[in-house]
Design brief:
seven-stranded mixed β-sheet; alpha/beta; globular; single chain; Glutaredoxin; 7 strands
Length: 182
């Protein structure tokens, strides 16, 4: 398994980065099993958007190096996102049992991760990794309460996902100071 993900990491640098959904596009609604702090629940994008924008990020697989780095980065920034009225949610093909552990150890019980083992959410966001069937690309979105994509960023390197989505949420918040206020 490690060899597969090492090859995946190498090959991902050969594939061009892209954001699957364009800014302004409607964000597909979904409900899926999720875990926050090891506790399973049903996550609904529509329900989360009633509270404010949602930072929706797709990642290839729990407990891999890049995905662990990204989860740690989002965990560290979750309080700042919450202060702006935003919810953070991660999505991967992993099953809920794996994500229960990942939500505690790598997400540090700060934000939820959603299980998409059949890939329906990944497909609806056209977030599939081109070189491996069933695996998500590393794509981050900011979805606004009107169910529109306000920001999209794709790069297999996890380093800029948090900073760029934070900037997009701040920009949206500045333009909509009363919408979904915390």
């Amino acid at each position: 398994m490690k060899r597969i993900f090492a090859s995946l990491a190498f090959l991902s640098f050969l594939a061009p980065a892209h954001a699957a959904l364009a800014v302004g596009a409607p964000a597909p609604d979904f409900t899926a099993k999720a875990s926050l702090g090891g506790n399973e629940f049903d996550f609904s994008l529509s329900e989360a958007l009633k509270k404010g924008p949602v930072v929706l990020y797709f990642y290839p697989a729990a407990f891999t190096t890049g995905c662990t780095i990204e989860a740690h980065d989002f965990a560290e920034a979750t309080d700042k996102f919450a202060a702006l009225g935003a919810t953070v949610i991660g999505v991967s093909h992993d099953g809920i049992d794996t994500l229960k552990r990942f939500s505690v150890s790598e997400c540090r019980s700060k934000f939820a991760v959603t299980a998409d083992p059949d890939g329906k959410v990944i497909v609806s966001y056209d977030a599939r990794l081109a070189i491996v069937t069933g695996i998500a690309d590393r794509i981050s979105y900011v979805i606004t309460p009107d169910h529109k994509v306000a920001f999209a960023y794709s790069d297999m390197n996890p380093d800029q996902h948090v900073a760029l989505t934070m900037a997009a949420v701040k920009k949206w918040r500045d333009a909509h100071p009363k919408a979904g206020s915390p």
